[in-house]
Amino acid sequence: MRFDIVRKYMNERCIDAVLLDSPDSIYWYFEGEVDSRIDHTREQGSFSLLIAGNKTIAICPEFDYDRLKDEVLPPEVEAISCSGCEKFDHVVRRFCRSFEKVSTDNRRICDEKFSLLDEEFYLNMQELNDREIMRLRIMGKLSESILCEFAQELQPGMTELEIEKVLRALLIESGLEVPILCVGSDERVTRYVYPVSTGKKIQRYIVMRAVVRKQGLRIAFTRYFHFGKIPLEIEQNHERVSGVFAKAAIAMMKARNAGEIYEEIQKAYSELKITPDFNGYPLGTLIGYSGEKFEVSQNSNLPLRSPAAYVLSPRVGGIFSEDTILMSDSGTAEFVTLSEDFPKIKVKLESFRVHRPWIMVL
C-alpha cells in the first residue's frame, strides 16, 4: 500500500483524511493489486477508501461486504459495512464528521469540509515502482506481439468491426483490458483522430489505435498496415511524423516540464515545414494510472516525474506516430510498446538513432 505517500501528503497540507473513490486511485493506492470494480464497463468502484490517522478503512456496501473482506481487501485494511438504504454521500459524511478537513477525488461531495485532491497528489500517482515498471513492459510487448501475429490473418474484404472483434478477444484472452480499440481503413485512416470501427470492408490501408490496461496501468499505441506497395505520399507522411516523434522523445530526456516538450514538437513541425495537424488533440499525456489529467500543452509547467509512463502522439497528414514511453530515473526513454516484431525505420538525430514503427506490408 502507498499509505506513507498519502500520509505525507496529508501532513504537508494539514488535512485530517483522504477519501478515494475512483478505481484508478484505489488501484494506485494498492499498487495495482486491488480492483474495486464489479462492472468493468464503468469507472465506478464497489467501495471507497478512507485514509485517516494510522488506518486505511474501506467503506463497503452491505450486500458486498463479505466478499470484499474475504477475497479482495488486504488484511491490514479495516472494512466497514454500510446500509444500502443510505445514500453514499450521507454515509461518507457520517464517517467523516469528526474531521475538519478531508480531500477527495470525488467531485460530487465537495463543500467546505471536502476539497478536491490537488495536482501534486495526481503527480505522485505517476511515479511507478519496480513491479509496475515490469508490468508496463510486459503489457507493451505482449500487446504488440499479439497484434503482429494477428496481422498475418488480415485479408482485403474483412470489415473493420470483424478485425476489432477478433483482436479485442485475443487481448482479453491474454489478461488485458481494452478500453479503446479503433480499426479504420482506407480514406478513414487519415480523416478521423479516432476512426471507430464500422462495417466498412477494408481494401488496402489500415490503422489500429489502442489503449490497453492491466491492473489499473494503461499503455497506448498506434500501428499501420498496407496491402501491397505503399504509395509515396503515405510513406512521406510516415517519415515526417516519425521525425517529429523522435525529436519529442529526445527532448523528453532533457526537458524539465511538459511545456518544453510542446515547444520542441512545434519546432520540429517548423523545421520540417509541416503544418501542425492536431486540431486540439493533445500531442502527448502522462498515462500510467491517471493520464487524462495531464497533457503536453503550450506553457505547461507540469514537472516531468520519473520513473513514469508517457504517451506521445504527434500527427502529420492525418497519420499518428504514437507509443508509450517509460522515463527512467537516469533520464533514458524506453519505448515499452515497440517490440522486435514490428517493421521499423531509424531516425538519426544528434548522436541518437531513434527506432519508429513503420507500415507493415501484408
TrEMBL record:
Domain Peptidase M24: 136-327
Gene Ontology molecular function: any one: aminopeptidase activity
Superkingdom in the source lineage: Bacteria
Sorted UniProt keywords: Aminopeptidase, Hydrolase, Protease
InterPro entries, per database record: Creatin/AminoP/Spt16_N, Creatinase/aminopeptidase-like, Pept_M24, Peptidase_M24B
PANTHER family hit by this protein: AMINOPEPTIDASE, XAA-PRO AMINOPEPTIDASE P-RELATED
Protein name in the entry: Xaa-Pro aminopeptidase
Origin species: Mesotoga infera
